[in-house]
Amino acid sequence: MTAQEQLPYHEIPDYPQDYGPGNVAARMIDGLGFRFYWASEGLTQKDLDYKPSEDGRTVFQTLQHIYGMSEMIKNAPLAKPNVRPMDLSTLSYEDLRKGTLENLKAASEYTAGKTAEDFENFEVIFQRDEKQTSFPYWNLINGMLSDCIYHAGQITMMRRASGNPINPNISVFRGTIRNN
Fold this sequence. Notes:
52% of the residues lie in helices and 11% in strands. The protein is mostly helical.
């Protein structure tokens, strides 16, 4: 097994036994993890520097943005504050990719099997200095989780535009690599 295959989400994990709220949320996170794994796998410096327009983000800046949101996705089930501002300037492409995948795996594990009552205690908490602002998990679903899926798609599109498309054998429906 290669080092990349040891990162979470080379393939999507087996689905849970039931459709309980925690398992559904965990599966959504797992789906994001799989899409992100393959969107961010094997990026070159040319890919990382690519941006579609003068005022757009580069792929690297998009990876930083996703990483920051993956921290929030991981912290919400623990009701752990997200301290702002967050300095990501020292993180490399490899650090951002590995950290994002590990954050998503942890978030999935934190939500799997949880009940609706458990979700009442999940909070997205922003902290700037001593001021905290809290939001329910609902905001994370339509906010960070949906935004990360959106941005994983952008990376897929931008890397194709820069000449390095994703593996054509990826099946997001099955969460595996097709053996052709």
